[in-house]
Write a structure and sequence with these properties.
Elements (H helix, E strand, L loop, with lengths): L1 H19 L3 H10 L16 H6 L2 H11 L22 E10 L2 E8 L4 E10 L5 E7 L6 H8 L2
Amino acid sequence: MRKGLFILFLALITGHALAADSTPIEKVKEVAALDIHGDWRPIFDNTPTPLMHKYFSAAFNQAWAAAMKHNKDYPVFDGDPLTGAQTGGGIKSISAQMVGPNRVAAAMTLRDGSSDSIEFVMLHTPTGEWLINDIKYPDGKSLRQILGAADR
Protein backbone atom coordinates (compact mmCIF):
# COMPACT_ATOMS: atom_id res chain seq x y z
CA MET A 1 0.00 0.00 0.00
CA ARG A 2 2.74 2.45 0.95
CA LYS A 3 4.69 1.56 -2.17
CA GLY A 4 1.59 2.28 -4.29
CA LEU A 5 1.05 5.65 -2.62
CA PHE A 6 4.72 6.54 -3.05
CA ILE A 7 4.58 5.71 -6.77
CA LEU A 8 1.39 7.77 -7.16
CA PHE A 9 2.97 10.69 -5.28
CA LEU A 10 6.11 10.49 -7.43
CA ALA A 11 4.03 10.42 -10.61
CA LEU A 12 2.09 13.49 -9.52
CA ILE A 13 5.25 15.44 -8.68
CA THR A 14 6.96 14.47 -11.93
CA GLY A 15 3.89 15.29 -14.00
CA HIS A 16 3.53 18.70 -12.35
CA ALA A 17 7.20 19.54 -12.94
CA LEU A 18 6.98 18.58 -16.60
CA ALA A 19 3.79 20.57 -17.09
CA ALA A 20 5.35 23.73 -15.63
CA ASP A 21 8.48 23.56 -17.78
CA SER A 22 7.94 25.75 -20.83
CA THR A 23 10.45 26.97 -23.36
CA PRO A 24 11.41 30.63 -23.82
CA ILE A 25 10.40 30.56 -27.50
CA GLU A 26 6.96 29.15 -26.65
CA LYS A 27 6.41 31.89 -24.07
CA VAL A 28 7.35 34.66 -26.52
CA LYS A 29 5.12 33.20 -29.24
CA GLU A 30 2.21 32.86 -26.81
CA VAL A 31 2.32 36.50 -25.76
CA ALA A 32 2.86 37.64 -29.37
CA ALA A 33 -0.31 35.79 -30.39
CA LEU A 34 -2.26 38.04 -28.00
CA ASP A 35 -0.96 41.23 -29.66
CA ILE A 36 -3.72 41.36 -32.25
CA HIS A 37 -4.36 45.09 -32.48
CA GLY A 38 -0.99 46.61 -31.62
CA ASP A 39 -2.11 48.45 -28.53
CA TRP A 40 -1.94 47.75 -24.82
CA ARG A 41 -5.08 45.65 -24.51
CA PRO A 42 -5.62 42.87 -23.54
CA ILE A 43 -2.10 42.33 -22.19
CA PHE A 44 -1.12 45.67 -20.65
CA ASP A 45 -2.87 48.23 -18.47
CA ASN A 46 -1.81 50.91 -15.99
CA THR A 47 -1.49 48.20 -13.33
CA PRO A 48 -0.20 44.70 -14.08
CA THR A 49 -2.94 42.48 -15.51
CA PRO A 50 -3.36 38.73 -15.01
CA LEU A 51 -1.77 38.25 -18.44
CA MET A 52 1.23 40.33 -17.39
CA HIS A 53 1.65 38.13 -14.31
CA LYS A 54 1.47 35.06 -16.56
CA TYR A 55 4.04 36.22 -19.14
CA PHE A 56 6.31 38.73 -17.37
CA SER A 57 8.62 38.52 -14.35
CA ALA A 58 7.77 40.07 -11.00
CA ALA A 59 10.61 42.59 -11.46
CA PHE A 60 9.21 43.63 -14.84
CA ASN A 61 5.72 44.04 -13.39
CA GLN A 62 7.09 46.13 -10.51
CA ALA A 63 8.92 48.42 -12.94
CA TRP A 64 5.78 48.70 -15.05
CA ALA A 65 3.57 49.58 -12.06
CA ALA A 66 6.05 52.18 -10.77
CA ALA A 67 6.31 53.90 -14.16
CA MET A 68 2.58 53.82 -14.87
CA LYS A 69 1.89 55.87 -11.74
CA HIS A 70 3.05 58.78 -13.92
CA ASN A 71 1.02 57.81 -17.00
CA LYS A 72 -1.82 60.19 -16.12
CA ASP A 73 0.64 63.12 -16.16
CA TYR A 74 2.39 62.23 -19.44
CA PRO A 75 2.49 59.17 -21.69
CA VAL A 76 5.11 56.84 -20.24
CA PHE A 77 5.18 54.58 -23.29
CA ASP A 78 3.34 55.63 -26.40
CA GLY A 79 3.22 52.52 -28.50
CA ASP A 80 2.99 48.76 -28.46
CA PRO A 81 5.25 47.46 -25.67
CA LEU A 82 5.89 44.16 -27.47
CA THR A 83 7.08 45.73 -30.71
CA GLY A 84 8.04 49.27 -29.73
CA ALA A 85 5.98 50.55 -32.69
CA GLN A 86 3.49 53.39 -32.45
CA THR A 87 1.72 52.09 -35.52
CA GLY A 88 1.78 48.63 -36.96
CA GLY A 89 -1.56 47.19 -36.00
CA GLY A 90 -0.22 44.28 -34.00
CA ILE A 91 1.87 41.22 -34.74
CA LYS A 92 0.87 39.30 -37.87
CA SER A 93 3.58 36.65 -37.72
CA ILE A 94 6.65 35.82 -35.68
CA SER A 95 9.64 33.55 -35.94
CA ALA A 96 11.91 33.17 -32.96
CA GLN A 97 15.19 31.56 -32.02
CA MET A 98 17.41 31.37 -28.97
CA VAL A 99 20.43 33.68 -29.23
CA GLY A 100 21.76 33.07 -25.73
CA PRO A 101 20.87 31.09 -22.64
CA ASN A 102 18.15 33.57 -21.70
CA ARG A 103 17.58 35.56 -24.89
CA VAL A 104 15.04 35.08 -27.67
CA ALA A 105 15.41 36.98 -30.93
CA ALA A 106 12.03 37.44 -32.57
CA ALA A 107 11.58 38.50 -36.18
CA MET A 108 8.11 40.00 -36.42
CA THR A 109 5.93 41.03 -39.32
CA LEU A 110 3.34 43.56 -38.26
CA ARG A 111 -0.15 43.86 -39.67
CA ASP A 112 0.79 47.04 -41.58
CA GLY A 113 3.43 45.05 -43.50
CA SER A 114 6.47 46.41 -41.67
CA SER A 115 8.90 44.11 -39.93
CA ASP A 116 11.30 44.33 -37.05
CA SER A 117 13.55 42.25 -34.83
CA ILE A 118 13.02 42.41 -31.10
CA GLU A 119 15.02 40.67 -28.38
CA PHE A 120 13.28 39.26 -25.34
CA VAL A 121 15.35 38.81 -22.19
CA MET A 122 13.94 35.82 -20.33
CA LEU A 123 13.99 34.71 -16.70
CA HIS A 124 13.84 31.02 -15.75
CA THR A 125 11.97 30.62 -12.48
CA PRO A 126 12.65 27.93 -9.85
CA THR A 127 9.31 26.34 -10.82
CA GLY A 128 10.55 25.80 -14.38
CA GLU A 129 8.64 28.62 -16.03
CA TRP A 130 10.14 31.11 -18.46
CA LEU A 131 9.01 34.71 -18.06
CA ILE A 132 9.83 37.85 -20.04
CA ASN A 133 12.12 40.06 -17.96
CA ASP A 134 12.79 42.78 -20.52
CA ILE A 135 12.28 43.67 -24.20
CA LYS A 136 15.08 45.19 -26.27
CA TYR A 137 14.17 47.26 -29.30
CA PRO A 138 16.20 47.75 -32.51
CA ASP A 139 17.34 51.23 -31.38
CA GLY A 140 19.19 49.62 -28.46
CA LYS A 141 16.78 50.79 -25.75
CA SER A 142 14.97 48.35 -23.54
CA LEU A 143 11.46 48.64 -22.18
CA ARG A 144 12.75 48.41 -18.62
CA GLN A 145 15.13 51.35 -19.30
CA ILE A 146 12.22 53.40 -20.62
CA LEU A 147 10.08 52.46 -17.62
CA GLY A 148 12.92 53.29 -15.22
CA ALA A 149 13.42 56.73 -16.76
CA ALA A 150 9.70 57.47 -16.39
CA ASP A 151 9.78 56.63 -12.69
CA ARG A 152 12.51 59.20 -11.90
